[in-house]
Design brief:
single chain; 7-stranded mixed β-sheet; about 50% strand; globular
């Protein structure tokens, strides 16, 4: 399993960024995907999650109404559209999934290497 994030960078408050997570090595369309973030000195937190077919999403309260998670199963890629960015959104953003060999087996989590998002004027 390989997860590769891209799209991070420096943006001014109120700006937008779109993160991408390219997935390989597993049946992408069969598993839920998530975005997490970790700010300096803080624990990693869940930002958003999308189910396997993209029909259901969940968001942390701190990003509701500003961020949109989506996925393209034909491209094995997940996205995070981030709008109205705030300085407190500054963090390393990680792509995450968990897979299992078959029903009844334990789940194995996988993480990307992360992409830095910095919101500053």
């Amino acid at each position: 399993v390989q997860l590769v994030e891209s799209g991070g960078g420096l943006v001014q408050p109120g700006g937008s960024l779109r993160l991408s997570c390219a997935a390989s090595g597993f049946t992408f369309s069969s598993y839920a995907m998530s975005w997490y973030r970790q700010a300096p000195g803080k624990e990693r937190e869940l930002v958003a999650r999308v189910n396997s077919d993209g029909s259901s999403t969940d968001y942390a309260d701190s990003v509701k109404g500003r961020f949109i998670i989506s996925r393209d199963n034909a491209k094995n890629t997940m996205y995070l559209q981030m709008n109205s960015l705030k300085p407190e959104d500054t963090a390393v953003y990680y792509c995450n999934t968990k897979t299992r060999r078959a029903y009844g087996y334990s789940w194995t989590p996988y993480w990307g290497q992360g992409t830095q998002v910095t919101v500053s004027s």
